[in-house]
Amino acid sequence: MIIAIDGPAAAGKGTLARRLAAHFKLPYLDTGLLYRATGRRVLDAGGDPSDPAVAESAARSLSAEDTQRSDLRGPEADRAASQVASIPAVRAALLDFQRSFGRTHGAVLDGRDIGTVIFPDAEVKLYVTASAEARGMRRWKELQARGVEADLATVTTEIRERDEADLARSAAPLMAAPDATRIDTTELDADAAFARAMEIVGAKTK
Ligand code: CDP
């Protein structure tokens, strides 16, 4: 079984994906990490994350260790991820890895184009959203928990800007697949979102 979870930044995709993966004993791939690690490699080399040739070569030389770095979250990494993610050659370079990850044993994957591009035939497609205010608050609390000083208004503005870039790009824009079921988590905590997702999975797989 493939469970595809897409949606805007900080909507609760990762938390939900991890819980579904644990429940169904499926491998989980946070595909955002691939774009984050690509952006980070470009920054490390002193390059510009919006330069297609540099970003593609970083994506092609990605290793497992790159995705385990501790510096993949934060404003700079967020922006670089979104910039490299708008480059078609970067997306093409990361496509096979994502497909083969799910092909053998099934998987839960979260990102922006899982239900539309990576696994258009996924058994279950969820589109997880929440208001920008709720998402800003969540990301701000995550940063606080990690001891990172941040301003709530700035965090919320950066989330809105990244959403706009992800929605407006021509390469695999953020979009709900026509057959995806939406879960708005503005008023749902992690348990309630999981319960709702389990109902949807049950209905789709019976
Ligand atoms: O955790 P958060 O929702 O803030 O972001 P993420 O899922 O780690 O994704 C970081 C950035 O990578 C996004 O803003 C997208 O630009 C890009 N991305 C993408 O284009 N396609 C994916 N499948 C996953 C992430």
Describe the structure.
The protein is α/β, with parallel strands linked by helices and 206 residues long. The chain has a single domain, classed as P-loop containing nucleotide triphosphate hydrolases (Rossmann fold), CATH 3.40.50. Helix content is 55%, strand content 11%. It is built from 9 helices and 5 strands; from the N terminus they run βαβααααβαβααβα. A 5-stranded parallel sheet has the order 2-3-1-4-5, with helices on both faces. Helix 1 packs across helix 9 and helix 3 packs parallel to helix 5. The longest helix is centred in the last third of the chain and has 17 residues. It is globular. The mean pLDDT is 96. Cytidine-5'-diphosphate (CDP) binds next to helix 2, helix 4 and helix 8.
Count of individual helical segments: 9
Number-wise, the strands total 5
Indicate the low-confidence ranges by residue numbers: none
The CATH superfamily is known as P-loop containing nucleotide triphosphate hydrolases
Instruction: Return the average pLDDT rounded to an integer.
Output: 96
